[in-house]
């Protein structure tokens, strides 16, 4: 037995002797020392057989503990203990564990047995700001002790404990009681769930190291908790003293932080010193004593600890951080004449100082071999960082910084367009263009031609295509194997019929091509829309020509700007485009108008508010849009701004709110009768979700009324609503509260009813309503509907008639444009 093991045994035995005495309740019912991994299993030292088994070991590994061994958690993991009567018999309890966290999320479990309201819980919550004991004592309740997460991320071991004695729930940190909650009664526990160490059944995973986890069937006293804490505290102090001696050879405090770290970096480089995690933590503590604010700034500006800085390579600690800081410092620099005209003289002076720092940074970055020492790098990083308003990254994180750029806009060659079409046709056939699929496609094409001819008598003739189909059908019926070229020939004929449909009385399509938002919960129905979730790279483009020779022209952005867009609108005379745009160097979406030829760009709104999804009103004098100017927020997500409907003059002046909603109003569009239809999140007498139906309002804000679905569960969220021309019916996307970019296309007939299932039909019958599911019945628009390939969802349908519509469909993570009909015939538009 080595000396270290002997020390552990002596301390442990002494501790146990003091706690146990003759009271078996003071013997743990479970005790994991994590000293030795045995065949993917950490044994229970209590003798009661509660061995902890890992589902997989990639995220778990043995490591050095406070006194001997520990388990290191990293990433997703599940370390489970089989269900046992011991956990159901608990009437009193004590949890005790040593932890060395490396980071926190919303929830990070120490121990959890998830049996619903009978759960046993000991965990960190709210990004490490709470240490919680959760038990069912006359109903489930938690004793939430407020703690400082920064104190637990100092690289040291910390003792966490919690007790319940039948009267009071108590939480301890490092031997000291930090909170208590009166709760007389007995614990109700038990169920079929496994107990989990460091997770909630594989979720809410603890990150860092854990040592000596114990569970007692009684409440230890404060003195007993202190005795559990004392041996580890003494061992840690001894280790710290050893680290301080080693650290003294490397780090010496000088007049400034930059001088001190620069000197330490030179010594580390010269002596080739390496740091283990405890040594790195020791250096962080030592430097923080001398320069606490500068250590915080180094971490914020570069993501580096003092130890990481002094031993990192040049690219890691100097060039990459400085390049990133320069980019962030200049992110919101005014670039256009309009932007420059809006800044004050004081702001001009600040930007002049930024320009000076940029010049210094560029000179430093260009000086390869003769670069100055570490001191100047640190000084310049700090000068740049002090001028940056950094994004939230821990709670409700917004989109990260993305270098501004816009991909080139180009028109596919004829050969490229043909190849894109062929790939799409194969996709629609599920990659199997065999005889059966070819014959089905011929049948669907005949039905399509018959339907169009019946709807537009005397205006179209498909005699030539139908004769060609007859010949292709004979070839298909004679086939024994697969003939892709024959299938493609059928699709070429079908495409010619589709493009001859008189409903296509236009030859240009306005559309947005842009990357997904980023940041926390970026798919959420509200968060995705906001300026702080947007990333540059979007384009507003016009497809000119619907046939194979169609060309793509970029309308926006115009140099020197890049940015993001949402849904645009076209004026009634088709001469102008109304749209929202977030320039990459501003923080919010504003409204703009531009001629369809790209001239006459005019900014209509400005300020710190998000204004988006504008539409022209029928009087040709006003616009309606969604805006955050109402100063409301999403109730279940308070940092997230809500947006409501507003009206303005066509030039953006005289803005006033026409909605009094507390929650968001989405995607207004003008109906044939002049009313505005939109999606409204309605919380009155409703839960968090299943509360986004369709509403209408007059353009002046009067006559607010439900249109459909205000008392419906299915679909979860109705959006993208547009009137079907010549009809009282409305086409929409049935989407999801937590995934705006999912959906199935549906139609509402207000003459059929106002809530599910009355008045509702689904167009894309093969795609389930997301999140809520389909419900007890699933009315389908067309009994002739057939699927044309597999799609994760549909987005923003634009009805052209009762039967035909444009729509984007998600395929392999990307949305592509289709002309579809309600029978499922789909024609891709390559661009």
Describe it.
The protein is of the alpha+beta class. 27% of the residues lie in helices and 28% in strands. It contains 16 helices and 42 strands. Strands 1, 4, 5, 7, 12, 13, 14 and 16 form an eight-stranded antiparallel β-sheet that branches. A hairpin with a 4-residue loop joins strand 41 and strand 42. Helix 9 (314-329) runs parallel beside helix 12 (374-385) and helix 15 (463-478) runs antiparallel to helix 16. The longest helix is centred in the N-terminal third of the chain and has 27 residues, at 222-248. The chain is globular, with a radius of gyration of 33 Å. Mean pLDDT is 92; it is low at 1-22.
Observed structural traits:
single chain, 831 residues, alpha+beta, 8-stranded antiparallel sheet, 16 helices, 42 strands
Cα-to-Cα separation, first versus last residue: 73 Å
Count the DSSP helices.
16
The unreliable regions are 1-22
Radius of gyration, in Å, reads: 33 Å
Q: How much helix, percentage-wise, in residues?
A: 25-40%
Major sheet characteristics: 8 strands, antiparallel
Find the structural class using helix and strand composition. alpha+beta
Q: Please, what is the oligomeric state?
A: single chain
What is the strand tally? 42
